[in-house]
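Fig. S4 source data, part A: sequence.
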Amino acid sequence: MRNTLLILAGAIGAALSSPAAQALELKVLTAGAFKSTVATLGPEYEKASGNKLIIDADTVGALVKRVEAGEPFDVIVMTPEAIDGLAAKSKIAPFSRTNLARVGVGVMVKEGAPKPDISTVDAFKKAVLDAKSVSFIDPASGGSSGIYVAKLLDRLGIADQVKPKELLKQGGYVADLISSGQSELGIHQISEIVPAKGVSLVGPLPKEIQNYTVYAAAVGPATKYPDEAKKLIDVFSGPSAQALFKSKGMEPAGP
């Protein structure tokens, strides 16, 4: 009997000390534009699993450098191109990429301010040129929208005229510069505009110059919890996510 109790106690102790019986911590690295989505969907996974998520956001460029330097993580959310580049260097678990959503670039002004016409390419150019100040993510910080906007202004032939009145954001929300009154016109991904307070979305860029950024998720190559990482990605691509994408100005990415 005594031996039986000892065996039973040992089995219970082993079960309680096993990963399945303990709350796990999963580290999620995410591009800034997807941070609010991850933060909203995360609790659904935490409630179902009992696990805890540690969410860390940065620009895509900065995340690539961090992962290349060997920073450990369980799940990462960024552009497919960046994930594929890391996968080629064995910094992503093979065949683990799942496309989640795509988001276009939009224009914002301070809440209550007049909204300029941006319905055509010429109207957009006029709105940018007429604005006293223009803000977008600093391309040097690695933000995908900032890199695109800088190239777009150059392609439209107005980069030199806009440069003196640019107020660039090093990372985070361009909306902060608009809501505070530091800048008059902001250009950023729509998912970064819709949830922000104190600003109004003027609208998306005209389709001729629109640029969509796709976001995808993948599993860390050295994660101790690959099954849990895959379950989390399922939440990021499941029914709740699809409804959330729409409310945040995003749409399904497709395969």
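Fig. S4 source data, part B ends here. The chain is about 40% helix and 20% strand.
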